[in-house]
Amino acid sequence: MKVPFNDLALLHHSIGEEIGEAIKTVIDGSGFVLSKAVSSFEQAFAKKLGVGHCIGVGNGTDALSISIKMLGIGAGDEVIVPANSFIATSEAVSISGATPVFADCDSYYGLCPNALKTKITSRTKAVIVVHLYGQAADIESISAICNDAGLIMLEDCAQSHFSSYKHSYTGCFGEAACYSFYPGKNLGALGDGGCIVTNNHNLAEKIRMYCNHGSMQHQKHVFEGSNSRLDGIQAAILEVKLKYIDNWNRQRLELAEAYTELLKINKHIVCPEIRPGAGHIFHLYVVRAQKRDELLQWLFKHNVQCGLHYEKALPFLPCYQQKNHSPAEFPVASEYQHLLLSLPIYPGMTAAQLKYTTNCIGEFYSQQ
Ligand SMILES: *Cc1c(COP(=O)(O)O)cnc(C)c1O
With 0-12 CB in 10 A as exposed, 13-18 as middle and 19+ as buried, what is 16? Predict the structure, then answer.
């Protein structure tokens, strides 16, 4: 038996005809950039989320850095980000000219509100909340802290397409929220893509202009922006996939529940917990495993592909060496980085594949 980490070919086969039709329509109309296909997807995505504005951009990293920039945050400002995330979260802060400041995570893998409080200085302007692995961070506590301290809250929803907290979707809590449509995300394009959503009309206008060389109208460049746009073909594909996202997210949740049911008796494994009030969409099913590296090798040898998210917490990456962070500053993230293991999870994964995976895990520990 083989268990891939993800199976995009399987997913795309299931809707191949519809995707083909959508691509053909864009080709026939030559609407490749800033076209009807793009505005149609933007409107559909905003409507489903329940937000006022959606602006398609080139990728999720641009979505973050452009949001930060258009909120007027830059050189001399600090933005607090969680210690456990993908590099893009902190990188986007640096791209905007501001300084990323790391805060530890909680046992649900989101930004820890108490750790966040200790990182606020007179230079702090914003906080980026990441709904990591598909689960809402402690959004109530964090937004209360941001309100008290006069900080802007931004959401990194690159892993949380239509995950929820108390019946509101993630992406509806911050001043703006940033999405990635990288192929492997829960809602992925067939290439790079991303978007920014917000209820702030002025911010939406500014972002839209920035992404198109500082202009709304042909050659009326009000300010220098950049070029970061969602392609028409990708938008058309995403609009097809948007119809299926609830079904795919439900499949992921069911697989996660099956994993937890089979693994919770294993005393060497800590299964992911669902935060009360959170609607988890399991972009990743991440356990904390003893002898993680040996288990990873064992599973690989038995044709089960796993992942590490993330191998090193952000403060300990080579690119942040100059910050001289010590593990004691991030006790949770630095402990977890040696334990985290992402098991295969994707729509279309079979019960047999899941059972095989958990059996392999059981066998590994029975030999220890
Ligand atoms: C994927 C990801 C991003 C970046 O998205 P890209 O489209 O690859 O630029 C940002 N933040 C998180 C948490 C991600 O997982």
Answer: exposed
